[in-house]
Task: structure prediction
Amino acid sequence: MLRTILLGAPGAGKGTVAAKIVKEYNIPHISTGDIFRDNLKRKTELGLRAQEYMTRGELVPDDLTCEIATTRLLEDDCKNGFLLDGFPRTVYQAEKLDEFLREHGQSLDKVVQLVVDDELLIKRLTGRRVCKNCGATFHVITIPPKEEGICDNCGHELIQRADDTEETAVNRLKVYEEQTSPLVTYYEEKGLLAPIDGAGTPEEVFQSILDVLGD
Ligand code: AP5
Ligand code: MG
Ligand code: ZN
Result:
């Protein structure tokens, strides 16, 4: 049982380390960004609405995002815990999440914050490549696929996310600073925050997280 949030700027490595954590704890990985991208792929109304904001690197409106996240949290597989990645992203979203958890007699165990400096974040974002088919994530320098442009898992083509251009990445970091970073204090005051150095290898970051979650 683990109810946790991975907090961190765009490119901090949330998705990469989340994959390892959810395997270890056997809990669902809930990424609002992944939900929006999946909807866009299927051209649903939600996906098309979210796209307007995502391509600019802006946040999708709070009420829509909260609705999506809480609906997902009501699914059966969340009964034994969950890992939230990229949600909440504003104080309003965090308050809505608290309200939801309270109503369902649940509480958070920990909020893991991945700390990475801006220069490294930009390098990670602009070098990221993702599989069109299975969503696996690579990096042209730090985590290259065995064959350039091809997914190790399923053999499909690797592409660049539409919001990983340098210009949009810079705006996403600004939006994080303005709208999401206040959550650091928010969770610190609740005694839930566990800051982790996110600059190491994926394995090192994963081990540091296991250490704080094991406490
Ligand atoms: P979202 O999909 O959540 O994107 P993000 O927060 O910007 O974060 P990223 O997915 O870009 O980075 P990550 O931390 O997962 O890094 P990754 O592991 O891939 O959101 C996208 C958009 O959706 C938002 O801009 C917004 O519009 C909307 N949205 C989503 N949630 C929302 C919400 N709650 N409210 C409102 N709007 C919302 O790693 C990055 C790269 O680095 C990869 O190439 C990876 O291979 C590499 N890497 C990772 N870890 C390491 C490591 N340890 N060492 C070396 N390389 C590494
Ligand atoms: Mg991600
Ligand atoms: Zn793949």
Remarks:
- DSSP finds nine helices and eight strands in the chain.
- Strands lie at 2-8, 29-31, 81-85, 110-115, 128-131, 137-139, 158-159, 193-197.
- The CA atoms of residues 39 and 45 lie 8 Å apart.
- The chain has a mean pLDDT of 97.
